Structure formats: structure tokens, C-alpha cells
């Protein structure tokens, strides 16, 4: 089954977000879209699916399996959902039903789309989850899953209906290298069996592994396209060359702890910490001291307790044993968390400007302070008058970072803070984070699945244990 997009154009309030994008996705083929955050990559997939926000103006033609429709007629493609075309969205917790356990969510596709009976549907769903190392998570609700586990459940759910065309928006976001490779292998297998894949990713390694055609987008337009081996090894466009060169392995190594307001002072300390989740011990006997201006990396497989460690250090949940001490005489609001999924931390019903104004009022700082941070993070001011669901994941992630930093924390737990950013924006954002936190003497605990990134930008590293599943 072939998917064709012709002359796609998407605009908002007079601003063109996607201009003249055309592509053909054939059986046994992969097309991967690379590009900076906000370049329109996700909008292309949403247009193909028929889920573009109603306030955006869409034009062009979409054809899947011989069914041709106007790109603006989004309802025309609803009957293909799950049957001819399936989408794995960028935000797993938004796509998963919070009232359903993992196994039931995956079984639903096998039963109501593929037509299997209740028993066979559950057995196949269980096998799907086991293939993604989620056998122990099939009875859990989405809120009981780590970010990487939720991503894998969403992947299994999207694939359950057996649609030959898959649209995957950042399908390996938040996964460690082992699980990333496992998901890539499953995507390649589906293509090798006659399916077709449109993949949106900022991970150059994923793009290389998937092969096929590469499309590079910049400011809503295609600036380069061609075979993966050619585009990623010998790119012709200056932007593509910058994109490939911005991979973490090319970053400079972190220097020793930079200037802090009180050099060497401990801002937070954990002693003999042990943490459990869902009845299972994740780690124990962990000693940790975070000093002003210091960056410490936390790595380990999905589900090993990285996020849970942050919640314990911030007092959001108690440890199974051990003790946490925070600097005395400091307001609790100066111990901050940068959440892995920023979409879950913003109200969907108010503009970003309103959300930021509420934050500056709460912390009694000038709105100019947050505007200065947004400028350093290259966030366009025009985005502030949109709701969270009207901006890209990467744009929202940077707004979330500015909102946290405006509180002037002395300790920041940053949970995968650049997981939605392209390599160039990721490097720029990390540079800003390091500059601001070290200028202010803020100790930072950085969670990342990217060991290379951790080695490049942190002075010390902690590796937590094996996968929860």
C-alpha cells in the first residue's frame, strides 16, 4: 500500500509552517524526516493521518491505498486509522488511555481492528509486550510506567492493528541504546515484510539504521533529500552538514566544576538511599552529594529508577530507606524538577504566555527574566500566544526549561531535558543550561539515556541498575 503526499501546505495566522512538501511512501520502503525543532516534521505526519489542529489552514492532496482526498478534509482519512495507516505519536502518555492497563491497550487493537477473539488478542498482546522487554509491565497503568516503558507500550499499541503504513514520530525518544535498537529492528522487520514507514527522528543513528530515503526540513521546507547513505555520509546542504556534525560525540568535554555562588557547598545530599517501585527494589545503598554549580549525570536502562531517584531527592516520594538532606534555610521552590514529558506539565486550556506569567508571579520575578531566557533558548516570541498543543514538542521543552530556570533553583533535577530536540538545538540548549546553572551556582542532576552526552557535559556520573522489566 502506497502513501502519497502532494504539495502539502500548512499555515497558521498567515505564517506558513509547511510549504510544498511532497513525498511517496511505497511498500518495503522507509522515509525518514530530519530537521530542527519546529521545522514542520510532525505536521507532515499529522496531515497524512488527518489530525492537524483545526485552527491551521491545510492544502494539498493525500492518497493512501488508492483513496485520494484533499489534505484539508481530515475526516476523509479517519476510516483508515489502524487499518491502513497507524501513527505512533511523540507523546506516549497523551496517546495512552490512563484508565487502561498496558495489556488491555495493546489487546484492543488486535481484537477490534485485526478481529481476533478476546483470548487470542490478549495472548498476542502479551507476546508483543514481551518482545519489548515489558512482560512485567503488562498489568500497569500508564502513570505506573517510566517514560521509556510508556513509549514502548504506545509503540506496541500503535502496531497492534496491523496497518501496513506506519507513521512514527520520535519512536525511540527516551529509550536506552539497547531498547532503541530493539524498536528499530521491529520497524525494519515490518518494512521487510511489505509495510512502509514514515519516521520522524532527531537521532542520526536511528536514521542510519533505518536506511531508505532521508528528507531534511528547515523552516517548513525540504532542503535536501536522497538515499540515507548519501545524505548522512556526504550531505550537500550546509544545514544538513551542521545537523550531522552536532551529534554529542562531537561535543567538547566538560571542564571542571565552573564558578558557583558558594563554591563547593553541598546543596543536596542523599545517604544510603534505597528505592522501590511496584514492590520491586530498584537500587539500594546509594550515597550522593550535589554541590553548587556541579553537573552529575544519571544513566541506566529504561525503568531502572532514574526518575524515581529525582522524585525522592525532591521530596515528592519517600525512599524505601535512607535519608535526604537539603540545604537549610532555602525555600522548597528552589529545588526544581524539569519533567521528561513537558506536555503533561502545562494546562492545555491556556496560552504559554499565561502559564509563564503565572510562574513569574508565583516566584515574584519580572516577566522580562523569562523573556531573556526564551531569547537565549531561541524560542520565538510568537509561540507564547499559542496553547501547548499548538507548538512542537521541542519548542514546548525549551519553554518548560525557561519556566524552571526563572525560579532560580539551587538544585535542578533535569529528566531527559533535550529528548525532543534535534542535534543542533540540543547542543545549543545544553550550552544555555550549563551557562545559567553554573552562573547561579545551581547543582544539576542530569538524566539521559545518551551515555556519550553524559560523558561530554557532566563532571561525574552515576549508573543505575538493570531494567525493571
TrEMBL record:
Localization (cell): Cell inner membrane
Topology in membrane: Peripheral membrane protein
Record flagged with keyword ATP-binding: yes
UniProt record similarity statement: Belongs to the ABC transporter superfamily.
Keywords from the UniProt entry: ATP-binding, Cell membrane, Membrane, Nucleotide-binding, Transport
Domain of life of the organism encoding this protein: Bacteria
Species per Swiss-Prot/TrEMBL record: Methylobacterium indicum
Molecular function in Gene Ontology: ATP binding
ABC transporter domain location: 3-244, 268-468
PROSITE patterns found in the cross-reference section: ABC_TRANSPORTER_1, ABC_TRANSPORTER_2
Protein name: ABC transporter ATP-binding protein
